[in-house]
Each structure stands twice: as C-alpha cells, then as structure tokens.
Amino acid sequence: MLMRAVRKHTDCKWIRLYIERWLKAPVLLDDGTLVDRAKGTPQGGVISPLLANLFMHYAFDTWMQRNYPRIPFDRYV
C-alpha cells in the first residue's frame, strides 16, 4: 500500500527505487547478524517520518470514511 501511495505522488523512478530499497533493506543487529524485514520502516531511519506521514494521510482518510461517513472532514495544513 505504501509504494502505491509513493507512486501516486511521484513519477521519478529514482525516488521510487530508493524508497523500495530502503523498505526491503535488512536490519543489522548489535551482534552483527542481518535480519530481513517483512514490513515497516527502520526505526530512526531518516525516511521513516516522511513515509509514516504519507501512510497516515491515506489511512486516516479511509478510517474517517469507514467509521464516520456522515461527518465531513477538511484537512487544514
């Protein structure tokens, strides 16, 4: 879902490539072992807040439509 949102907001192939690589990169533990990540963004990663905001933009709108369909919602930013 997150990459779908990224594709909607940019057509730059390099941005898409690096974000996808970032999301698939393994985690290096303190003992030196690499652990594959199945979901999420790395904690403390510089891209994590940006991707979280993008995800929450769509997740919140969907949640509002599903749970409060009769209440109009305007986004002020």
Give a structural overview:
The protein is mostly helical. The chain has one domain. 52% of the residues lie in helices and 5% in strands. The two termini are 23 Å apart. The mean pLDDT is 84.
Strand content: 5-15%
The major sheet is characterized as: 2 strands, antiparallel
Overall shape: it is elongated
What is the N-to-C succession of helices and strands? HHEEH
Total helical elements: 3
Unreliably modeled segments: none
Adjacency order of strands in the biggest sheet? 1-2
Instruction: State the secondary-structure class.
Output: mainly alpha
Mean pLDDT: 84
State Rg.
Answer: 16 Å
Distance between the termini: 23 Å
What share of the residues lie within helices?
40-55%
Q: What's the β-strand tally?
A: 2
Please indicate the count of domains: 1
Per-chain topology:
Blueprint lengths: L1 H8 L3 H12 L2 E2 L5 E2 L12 H20 L10
Protein name: Reverse transcriptase domain-containing protein
Family: Belongs to the bacterial reverse transcriptase family.
Q: What is the gist of this entry?
A:
The chain is mostly helical. 52% of the residues lie in helices and 5% in strands.
Key attributes of the depicted protein:
single chain; 77 residues; mainly alpha; two-stranded antiparallel ribbon
